[in-house]
Amino acid sequence: MYGKKKERLYVYDLVEEPAITYPMSYSVSHSLLENEMFHDALIAVHMVDFENMVVPQQASEIFATLGAGGFVIYKEQYVVGYFGGKLMYLESSGWKGLQATQEIFKLENWLV
Predict the structure, then answer these.
(1) What pLDDT, in 10s, does the model give residues 29-73?
(2) What is the secondary structure of 14-68 as a DSSP string?
(3) Which of 112, 1, 10 is nearest to 57 (CA)?
(4) Which domain holds residue 88?
(5) How many structural domains is the chain composed of?
(6) How far apart are CA 29 and CA 47, in angstroms?
């Protein structure tokens, strides 16, 4: 009946001197609070460090990463996960559904 309790993950707990300081924190579940793949994606966004990421050649690469429990980056600013059969992007207040716009289908907007 009640949703799982969310916890605050502060960017400064992951990165001492982030290049991007907004948002300063995220509301996430306890399991994501301890998820290293999730941390890596957040660090990449907040440090603007996409050196280890590539633009996918096919959409299947995005879904393979998500299906393996990983996270991808959308437009170099949003961490995207796959929950309950939906693509979700992370905002400070929690996960929001990713709207299917024309932009979402352009592979150059994604990093895996």
Answers:
(1) 999 999 999 999 999 999 999 999 999 999 999 999 999 999 999
(2) H-SS-S--SSSEEEE-HHHHT-HHHHHHHHHHHHT--TT----SSHHHHHHHHHT
(3) 112
(4) 7-111
(5) 1
(6) 23
* Most distant pair of Cα atoms in the chain: their distance: 42
Domain membership flag for residue 66 = yes
Question: What span, in angstroms and rounded, lies between the C-alpha atoms of 5 and 45?
Answer: 25
Contact 98, 74 (CB under 8 A): yes
Report DSSP state, residue 8. Answer: E
The pLDDT, as a whole number, for residue 65 is 96
Three state DSSP letters for 59-97: HHHHHHHHHCCCCEEECCCEEEEEECCEEEEEECCEEEE
Give the residue-averaged pLDDT of 1-18. 87
